[in-house]
Amino acid sequence: MTENKEDIDFERKILEMEMPLKKFISEEEKETSWKEILLTVEGDSHKRSIIKNLYWVAAAASVLIIIGVALWPIVDSGFRTSDHEKLTIGLTDGSSVTLNNKSRLDVADDFGEKDRRVSLRGEAFFTVQRDEMKPFVIAIGRHEVIVVGTSFNVNYKENLAEVTVRSGKVRLQADNKVLILEAGEKGVISLAGELSRVEWNANDFAWYSETLIFKEKSLKEIAEILSKIFNRRVEVSPTIASCTLSGKIEYETIDDILVIIEVTFDVEWKVESNRIYIYGDKGC
C-alpha cells in the first residue's frame, strides 16, 4: 500500500511540473481554407520512471536486531526515452525539459549551484527559467546552446543540430563562431560546424505542442512530416500523393490525424509493422 501511495504521489508531482505550450499561431496561419479541421483530444500522461530507495539492514546474534538503517537513493542524472515515448522533466532551477522519442538528457550533479549545464542527444523542448547570473548551457556534441531565459526546440541527431526559438534569445556557439537567434528564427549547425539561419516552421514544435498546421500541403509532404514526428514510416499511394490539405489539427496520436485524412479525402490507411500506408483510387 505504501509503495502504491508513493507511486501516485510521484506521478502527481511530475504532472505538476509539466508546463504546457501556449498557442503560437500567427494571424496569417489562422486564415486557413474551408477545409480547416480542428480535433482536440485530451492528453495522456506519459510513462515515468520511479526512483526507488535501497535499505541496508544488519542482524546480530540469534535475535534479528536492526542496528541501523541507511537510506541510499539510486541517483541517475540521465533521462532517456524509448522509440515512441515522450518525457517531461522538471529541473531544480524551475526550468522544464520535454524529451522527444529516442533522446537522452544528462544533468550535472551540481546543476544550479555554480552554473546550469546539461547535455542532449536527440530532441527536446526547453522552457528555461530566467537567471542572468547563471546562463543555461546545453552541450550538443562539441557545440553549445547558451540561453538566459527562453523557450526553444533543439534537435541534435547524427552530429547535425537544429535550434528553433519560440521566445527570447538563443546563442549558438560552434568552436569560435557564434550565431544569435531571436523568437521566430531557426539556426543550424552543419556537420562541418558551420552556422546558418534557415526558414522557421511552426511544425518544428508539432511533436511537443501536438498541433499541426498545414497550408496547401500535399499528402506526400504531410506523410514526410508525420514520419519525422512519430518515428514511423508513412507512405502515400501515387494516386492521392498530390492532394492538398489546409488547416490546423490538434491530436494525441497519429491515428487522430489519419482519421482526418481518411474522412477528408475518402481514402483508406493500413498499418504493417512500423509502416503506415495511405491509399485511394479516386484521386483529388
Automatic annotation (TrEMBL):
It comes from the Bacteria. The keyword Membrane applies. It holds the Pfam family FecR. Coiled coil: none annotated. One of its GO terms (molecular function) is sigma factor antagonist activity. Residues 212-278 form the Protein FecR C-terminal domain. The chain crosses the membrane at residues 54-75. Keywords: Membrane, Transmembrane, Transmembrane helix. The keyword Plastid does not apply. InterPro entries: FecR (IPR006860), FecR_C (IPR032508), Ferrdict_sens_TM (IPR012373). Residues 80-171 form the FecR protein domain. This is FecR domain-containing protein. The lineage of its organism: Bacteria, Pseudomonadati, Bacteroidota, Cytophagia, Cytophagales.
